Amino acid sequence: MKIKKYGAIDIGSNAVRLLVANVIEEKNKEPLFKKSSLVRVPIRLGTDAFVNGIISKENTNRMIDAIKAFQLIMKVHGVEKYKACATSAMREARNGAEVVSTILKETNVAIDVIDGKKEAAIIFSTDLHHLIDSDFTYLYVDVGGGSTEFTLFSKGRIVKSKSFKIGTVRLINNKKTENNAIFKQVQEWVEKNTKNYKRISLIGSGGNINKIFKMSGREVGKPISYIYLNAQYQFLKKMSYKQRISELSLNPDRADVIVPATKIYLSAMKWSGARKIFVPKIGLSDGIIKSLYFNNL
Length: 297
Hints:
This protein has 297 residues and is an alpha/beta fold. The chain has two domains: 2-117 and 284-294, Nucleotidyltransferase, domain 5 (2-Layer Sandwich); 127-278, Nucleotidyltransferase, domain 5 (2-Layer Sandwich). The protein contains 14 helices and eleven strands. The protein has helices spanning 45-52, 57-77, 88-92, 96-107, 116-124, 128-131, 168-173, 176-194, 207-216, 226-238, 241-246, 252-255, 258-272, 284-293, and strands spanning 2-11, 16-25, 32-41, 81-86, 111-113, 137-143, 148-154, 157-164, 200-205, 224-225, 276-278. It has a six-stranded mixed beta sheet. A five-stranded mixed beta sheet has the order 3-2-1-4-5, with helices on both faces. The protein is globular, with a radius of gyration of 19 Å. The chain starts with a strand and ends with a helix. GO terms for molecular function: pyrophosphatase activity. This is Exopolyphosphatase. Pfam families: Ppx-GppA. Residues 42-291 form the Ppx/GppA phosphatase N-terminal domain.
């Protein structure tokens, strides 16, 4: 048996994460990927990028500190290979390239700023194919802070894929008219591309749906129903921000974005006719680890 250690840094619009994973190799067996450590730092780059158009000096310095801390954590774990990827906030900030350059200079960590298509491709390199039954149709919805990726699978193949600027951090900072317009675009795309399919299920990805799944107490692999998700949405919406923190023990940077995130998943279910959503708890960092191991990055 051999055990290799890999690291993935995911610089998102709502948080920056480090995943350290063990890759266990045994003769005549597929490699086993096991999470060893997950560190999440609430640096909300999306508020900078989507409201002011630039990443602030303060948050640039916070990122530098976070990445230096991640380097020490990876050193202690004995990580042999890692990759850092940034998504929509860094992509849209006017000074994104400058910030990436500053971080490289200060930490020697090169950040790959990826687009929505590449982000989806990296996530698909996870165990998603084990979840997909070739006889059914699925709408995969990955809700982030700055964007949401929608991918339609049918008979085990990708039919259509599109990224929309409808992330949670963006939604809480946008004007209501802007949010209504983008929801309308997503509705048209979902309805158009799912209308010829029956028995569609959703696959949900992202920190917010993972949290809702955990709160549901469901067994791993069991789906959440539309009725349950709608009830949760109404429940969360009625609570104040402070109540979500004190009564539900949500992190402060989760307590505000969980409501718009739930609305996106719920809307996608309504527009596609899906009655249940599977939550495999996979994300960009998991995809980075697998892509590193198989030399796809």
